[in-house]
Amino acid sequence: MSYKLTALGLMSGTSLDGVDAALIETDGMEVGAHIGTLTLPYAPELRATLRRVLDDVAGRALDDAKADAGIAQVVRDLTLAHAEAVAALRRQHPGVTVDVIGFHGQTLLHAPERRLTWQAGDATLLSSETRLPVVHDFRTDDVAAGGQGAPLAPLYHAALLRGHDRPVAVLNIGGVANVTLLTNDGAIWACDTGPGNALLDDWAERHTGVACDLDGALAGAGRAREDIVATLLRDPYFAVPLPKSLDRLSFHRAFEAVEGLSAEDGATTLLALTVEAVRATVLPERPCAWYVCGGGRHNPVLMERLRAQLGAPVEPVETLGWNGDALEAECFAFLAVRSLRGLPLCVPGTTGVPAPLTGGRLTCAAIASPHWLAGAWVAG
Ligand SMILES: Nc1ncnc2c1ncn2[C@@H]1O[C@H](COP(=O)(O)OP(=O)(O)OP(=O)(O)O)[C@@H](O)[C@H]1O
Ligand SMILES: CC(=O)N[C@H]1[C@@H]2OC[C@@H](O2)[C@@H](O)[C@@H]1O[C@H](C)C(=O)O
């Protein structure tokens, strides 16, 4: 490995459950030590506010939403939650010097067809709170270049899977689900497959008051209405070839289709949609194995249906020695270092950009000269 940095990645995903933080060593090409991780759940009020803001932002002009004082306060609150996660992780590893933060931010809007994507977060505030350089805004350049802006995890998956048998797939089941496929000829393909847990979370919250269908308690007790799943699979999204990406709210019309079902049958049907959407994704090669990360792998009913439907072994990424709850946070640590080095964050097969493209912006507030900026390494 060439000159490596200690990078702290921060991800707050579409599930709106909180901030994942991870510390790794990397030169942006290889991944060295996995130093530590933690999750800091959002306070329930912040989560509820974010859920409302998502709906609000979807219905108005983006510039207008960004200028809204109420939304600005939410952005500040979520940034401070990220700063708290950084402080907590640094307290756990007092001997470690962090070189840079990779700050994804909270996606509040993703509409690549309008060349819009917004990962809310105040990088200047985070940098001044932590006194660390912050790389942020990872998706804008990709979308501006005509790409989907997502998923961005595939190059990290590829770095971790170097030398692994192919074709192989990594499936993330977060709020939205996304797949990375590494093919026999060394290509990387990716897309969002469809809903992940977001619909099931909202359904469970509505019916039980609990924020998710914990351990698949509801979905395991119901029957899937396969006719409804089949109808939902006629959505044009599934006919679009990859690369393609989704917003958290993209499939909320599925709610109308399950309206009137019992809590259990509705949950089983929504869970079946998540799995069938993966199966319906046309990949250039059939994976010989699927490795699953993201919170969905904790749902045994979901894993069981994936195993039954995908026609190849389906295992949690822990089988590979990875931490499936920290992977996305690690990814943004890795991408921060790639951004500093001007390396691509995406390639045509992952986001549809015309050519490999770097991205991200560096913000250094209240830091005279980050020690690594003095080195020749960054220029190289
Ligand atoms: N024990 C469990 N039983 C059922 N579901 C679970 C369990 N643990 C986590 N989950 C699901 O995982 C979700 C969180 O997953 P994750 O943290 O991967 O999402 P995210 O990173 O926010 O989303 P995305 O990857 O779309 O950005 C929860 O909202 C819940 O649906
Ligand atoms: C716009 C956005 O935030 N997309 C997320 C979301 O959550 C899962 C899926 O949709 C994925 O495409 C992406 O996140 C991961 C980290 C990615 O970019 O790979």
Automatic annotation (TrEMBL):
Catalytic activity of the protein: 1,6-anhydro-N-acetyl-beta-muramate + ATP + H2O = N-acetyl-D-muramate 6-phosphate + ADP + H(+)
Protein name: Anhydro-N-acetylmuramic acid kinase
One family name in Pfam for this protein: AnmK
Keyword set, alphabetical order: ATP-binding, Carbohydrate metabolism, Kinase, Nucleotide-binding, Transferase
PANTHER family linked to this entry: ANHYDRO-N-ACETYLMURAMIC ACID KINASE (PTHR30605)
Nuclease in keyword set: no
Residues that, per the record, bind ATP: 13-20
GO process terms (BP): 1,6-anhydro-N-acetyl-beta-muramic acid catabolic process; amino sugar metabolic process; peptidoglycan turnover
Pathway the protein contributes to: Amino-sugar metabolism; 1,6-anhydro-N-acetylmuramate degradation; Cell wall biogenesis; peptidoglycan recycling
Function recorded in the entry: Catalyzes the specific phosphorylation of 1,6-anhydro-N-acetylmuramic acid (anhMurNAc) with the simultaneous cleavage of the 1,6-anhydro ring, generating MurNAc-6-P. Is required for the utilization of anhMurNAc either imported from the medium or derived from its own cell wall murein, and thus plays a role in cell wall recycling.
Encoding gene (name): anmK
Enzyme class at the top of the EC tree: transferase
EC assignment: 2.7.1.170
Family: Belongs to the anhydro-N-acetylmuramic acid kinase family.
One annotated GO molecular function: kinase activity
